Sequence to fold (111 residues):
Amino acid sequence: MLVHMVIGVVCIHDSTVTPPVITQGLTDEGGKVGGVVTFYCKATGNPVPIVDCYKNKKRLRGVRFQVVDAVGASVLWIAALRLDHENEQTIVSEVTNEDGTATVFIALIIN
Fold:
């Protein structure tokens, strides 16, 4: 099962500073042990928000967790899914700029 999450960020091109707003929310997703899962979200703000994802208060980066940034978008892939004490895990996505933070919590269910 492959599910996609693209975090699209739309820049407001004026001098008004606005806090980040998640305009298309994330959804709970599931995957199989050893599989790959990806999530999708969009946000706006000025300046352009920075997106970070966390699990157990640790930033998701590394071999199994990849955030690929592109112009106006970010993609989070979680590969080689495994059970970490429970089959339901919470992923936290924070979208931040100098005017604030928008946060969303997502359930990742592993079979």
